[in-house]
Amino acid sequence: MALNPSQVYLYAADPPDYQIALGAAAISGIPWEQVMGNFYDAWNTVANGSYLVIAVGAPANNALYYNPCGWPNPSHEAQGSTPFDLAPSPADTLPGRNWYESAAGEFGYQTFLIAAAFAYYATHGSLPSTLSSYPSPISPLHVCDGSLVVAFPSISSCVNGVDSATNLGPVATCLKSHGYDFVARYLGGPCFAGTPLTRSEIQQLTSAGLLVASIYSGANG
After folding, report:
1. Please, what sign has the CA dihedral across residues 106, 42, 38, 142?
2. Which structural domains are found in the chain, ordered by start?
3. Which DSSP string corresponds to 130-178?
4. Of the four, 41, 70, 81, 116, which is 20 to 30 A from 205 by CA?
5. Quick one: pLDDT band at residue 163, thresholds 50, 70, 90?
6. pLDDT digits over 94-106, tens only?
7. How far is it, in rounded angstroms, from Cα 130 to Cα 141?
8. Element spanning 51, H or E
9. What is the torsion angle, in degrees rounded to the nearest 10, for the CA atoms of residue 41, residue 46, residue 47 and residue 51?
10. SS3 188
């Protein structure tokens, strides 16, 4: 039996991964309030055992597995040490205290696919056909990256969704300049579904160096 969305949290340790986590949560029916950017809170949530926590991106995975930055934590563990381990994934049951899932890809779009797959599976107990295949998460590294606290992202006009009714050339360039390397096909907001991109629109996006991840909101089907 799948988990209730209220039992699933996503944790990100840098701004791009935070937005990826918000997208994965939206696809899976998980409230945006359950996307965390605070290491201290993430530590408490993993240790609690009453929730499934998905670490989105390498900085979050590294932080929970090694705490290589030596960030303060509720257990007062020293730098390079945490009580946490990786749970088998994907899962639609609670892993227990001190276990979490890693959705860390080598690149941003891979992180998105993994996070979307794991979050969707957790709340539905199965995967849609578009998520039946996803990259393998990368192993945690003893590398300090990210931030102790990541605020809810301040979204610039160009990254607050891609409007297919506009000229996508300038939008694609803006996205690339903000450090993003992919857009999610069909993904809308937390409460609505996106619409398919046309071949011309995809060409405009890819010409700017962006990748297009094939994924959809559950509202699409």
Report:
1. negative
2. 5-131 (3.40.50), 168-220 (no CATH)
3. GGSS-PPPPPP-S---S-SB-PSP---TTTS---TTS-HHHHHHHHHHT
4. 116
5. low
6. 999 999 999 999 9
7. 29
8. none
9. 110
10. coil
Q: What is the pTM of this model?
A: 0.75
Average pLDDT for residues 127-146, to the nearest whole number?
93
Most confident option among 149-153, 186-190, 204-208: 149-153
Task: Report residue 102 CA to chain centroid gap.
Answer: 10
| Residue found under tokens 């991106």 | 57
Determine how many CB atoms are found less than 10 A away from the CB of residue 159.
18
Instruction: Pull the structure tokens for residue 26.
Output: 């939206």
Hey, is 87 helix, strand or coil?
Answer: coil
Tokens linked to 2: 């799948």
Mean pLDDT taken over the chain: 85
Residue 214, both tokens = 């094939």
Q: Which residue has the tokens 């969704």?
A: 161
Q: How far is CA 9 from CA 6, 20, 122, 191, in A?
A: 8, 13, 10, 18
